[in-house]
Design goal:
- The complex is a heterodimer of chains A (338) and B (268).
- Chain A is mainly alpha-helical and 338 residues long.
- Helices cover 75% and strands 0% of the residues of chain A.
- Chain A has 13 helices and no strands.
- The longest helix of chain A is centred in the C-terminal third of the chain and has 34 residues.
- Chain A is elongated.
- Chain B has 268 residues and is mainly alpha-helical.
- In chain B, 58% of the residues lie in helices and 7% in strands.
- In chain B, the strands form two sheets. Chain B has a two-stranded antiparallel ribbon. In chain B, strands 3-4 form a two-stranded antiparallel ribbon.
- In chain B, helix 11 crosses helix 12.
- The relative contact order of chain B is 0.08.
- Classes of the chains: A mainly alpha (338), B mainly alpha (268).
- At the A-B interface, helix 1, helix 2, helix 3, helix 8 and helix 11 of A face strand 2, helix 3, helix 5, helix 7 and helix 8 of B.
Chain lengths: 338, 268
């Protein structure tokens, strides 16, 4: 077979496969007819052989490029993962995949929690020992020094100045951004994540100590715990997600660093995505419960209850083996083959 | 050109090659996308401020602030969702990437997965700082988000040599890749490719370079076809080249010259 004859013979096949691949890429594989599907599985292997043959003949650059693009396009259509319906995937994720992931990664959570606890307590102790240290952690705008007697009612008034809907969206989006950055900074081998965690918890510790110095610890509880309990918890989870990436780079174990990073990123991103609902709930609480006129104890109770329910969900949802193997096989990792 | 080839191995044990997107087109795509984001946010902002004037009660006064709340959420969704939405929905192509004819794909082959899209775009803000650095030290022009997600960005441009020189015509380019021309020439595809490339790009070369190529590259090919190059001046040889690549089906082209190199052509 001479190269010229090869081009002549195969050109029709290539054009045909090109048109099918283009249709699949533009309109989706679902829109291909049955005969087109059969055709693509039949033609693809012959085109991969053509790639090898064209290479042997030393065909010109344009033909090589055309063949490679065609073969890769068809390859992408044939070897893809089965896709479930997005809604059922989301349902599965929330029903048991996420809590299981959390339990599998609880070591990272504990490390993140330890970072949080140590730096909070450190900042707290430092400000208690030396009140002027407070300005290392607390922005001056929040200063209570010169306001004389500050009561719970005053802090409540400040909160009530801003309407709930606006505050909810502002706080929630801001918190989610912090969580995202805690996750993505994990790629700096966890250093950036640790920085975000330490920075935020030192601010919290300094804040508490500053209020305690003025005998306002009770106010602090009433206005931070209702939403803060869940919020801080979610930030720590996001930190755990970042550490998952960071440690996958720093300590790859038996695999290559790159493979380890990929696995770490996959698990980490799911862990951080699951914090979004937590932040939404915390944001709603912060906007509607925290500034309300309910008694402080009830508010604190609501905050602790939100955290408790979240913890119960993460620790106990999806326990047992029954739902481990989904019956419809949507979750299977098997690829379709020609 | 800063372009490189990525190789994937198929289950059929054939190596397929694809062209990685260059750093320039990736920056250009990124620029287009951020411009889109900016314009979308501007549009939302304009609509919102008109709405605030129309219905001040709902938007500005204490009762509502609903307008601001919605504005914030929309901006958040645009900023974090723009890239992820388009890459997930349009198979790895944001409008900017479509503009630059590049696409995000998995480094193992297939189309980009949902999870990979989320990972690479959550890391995007960090890559504004570290991305270029990472792209220069990785072998496949991957930014940090690409490394974590296991993706590469490939070029899908149908590259056409005719664009590199104004004088080369599309017709000549098609000749090289057509079966008829190859058949008629009786040469191997590589040889024909060399001749066609020489013919198309001859005006970019200096006269010395052309003389040199005649001796070292073109001459030996022509000699196989029984043309004695040594005895002929350059323009005649080039005319022989033209005759071969056009497979004898076209009349020899007129060697009319916009440049300085051609006047000798008339002598012959």
């Amino acid at each position: 077979l001479r190269p010229a004859r090869f081009l002549e013979l195969r050109n029709g096949v290539w054009s045909r496969l090109e048109s099918i691949v283009e249709k699949a890429q533009k309109k989706g594989v679902a829109r291909l007819t049955e005969s087109e599907l059969h055709e693509i599985t039949r033609l693809y292997p012959t085109v991969t052989v053509d790639v090898a043959r064209a290479r042997m003949y030393g065909m010109d650059a344009a033909t090589m490029r055309r063949l490679n693009q065609l073969a890769i396009g068809a390859h992408g259509i044939l070897y893809r993962r089965k896709r479930g319906r997005p809604l059922s995937a989301l349902g599965r994720f929330l029903a048991y995949e996420y809590p299981r992931l959390f339990r599998r990664l609880k070591a990272y959570f504990l490390v993140a929690f330890a970072l949080f606890a140590v730096s909070t307590l450190g900042a707290y102790a430092s400000v208690r020992a030396n009140p002027s240290n407070a300005y290392l952690f607390v922005p001056r705008g929040l200063d209570v020094e010169n306001e004389g007697e500050v009561t719970a009612a005053d802090v409540g008034e400040r909160y009530r100045e801003v309407p709930g809907s606006y505050m909810a969206s502002r706080i929630t989006t801001n918190n989610i951004q912090v969580a995202f950055s805690a996750f993505s900074l994990g790629i700096t081998a966890g250093i950036g994540t640790s920085y975000v965690l330490i920075f935020n918890s030192m601010m919290l510790g300094g804040f508490f100590a500053h209020f305690a110095n003025h005998g306002l610890l009770r106010v602090c509880y009433e206005f931070l715990v209702p939403h803060g309990a869940l919020e801080v918890f979610a930030i720590i989870v996001a930190g755990a997600a970042g550490l998952r990436i960071g440690l996958s780079i720093a300590l790859p174990g038996q695999t290559t660093r790159m493979a380890s990073l990929r696995k770490g990123a996959k698990e980490g991103v799911l862990l951080v995505l699951g914090t979004i609902p937590m932040f939404v709930v915390a944001g709603v609480i912060e906007s509607y419960v925290t500034p309300s006129y309910m008694s402080g104890n009830i508010k604190i109770l609501i905050g602790l209850a939100a955290l408790g329910v979240t913890l119960m969900y993460l620790l106990f949802a999806g326990l047992g083996t029954r739902s481990d193997v989904p019956s419809n096989g949507v979750n299977s990792k098997v690829v379709s083959s020609p | 050109m800063f372009q490189d080839i990525d190789t994937i191995e198929t289950p059929e044990n054939v190596y397929l090659e694809r062209e990685l997107a260059g750093i320039g087109s990736r920056f250009a795509a990124c620029f287009v996308d951020y411009l889109m984001i900016f314009l979308m946010m501007l549009a939302v902002w304009v609509i919102m401020s008109i709405a605030a004037q129309e219905w001040p009660d709902e938007f500005v006064q204490r009762r509502g602030y609903v307008g601001y709340a919605v504005l914030l959420v929309i901006q958040f969704v645009i900023y974090w969702g723009y890239f992820a939405f388009f890459e997930a929905k349009r198979n790895g192509q944001t409008p900017g990437k479509k503009n630059q004819k590049i696409r995000t794909v998995m480094d193992t082959g297939g189309p980009v997965t949902f999870l990979a899209v989320i990972i690479r775009n959550l890391i995007r803000p960090i890559d504004i700082l570290f991305g270029p650095f990472s792209m220069f030290i990785t072998s496949k022009w991957q930014r940090l988000g690409d490394l974590a997600a296991g993706t590469v960005v490939v070029s899908e441009e149908k590259f056409d040599y005719s664009s590199t020189t104004k004088r080369a015509k599309n017709r000549e380019w098609k000749l090289e890749t057509s079966a008829e021309a190859l058949q008629a020439s009786g040469l191997s595809p590589e040889e024909l490719s060399i001749l066609t490339n020489y013919w198309m790009r001859r005006h970019e070369l200096t006269l010395d370079a052309r003389q040199h190529l005649m001796k070292t590259l073109i001459g030996p090919i022509l000699q196989r076809k029984g043309i004695r190059v040594n005895a002929m001046p350059l323009p005649s040889v080039e005319r022989e080249v033209a005759r071969i690549i056009k497979g004898g089906t076209f009349a020899p082209p007129k060697l009319q010259s916009p440049g300085t190199a051609e006047p000798e052509a008339r002598d012959h």
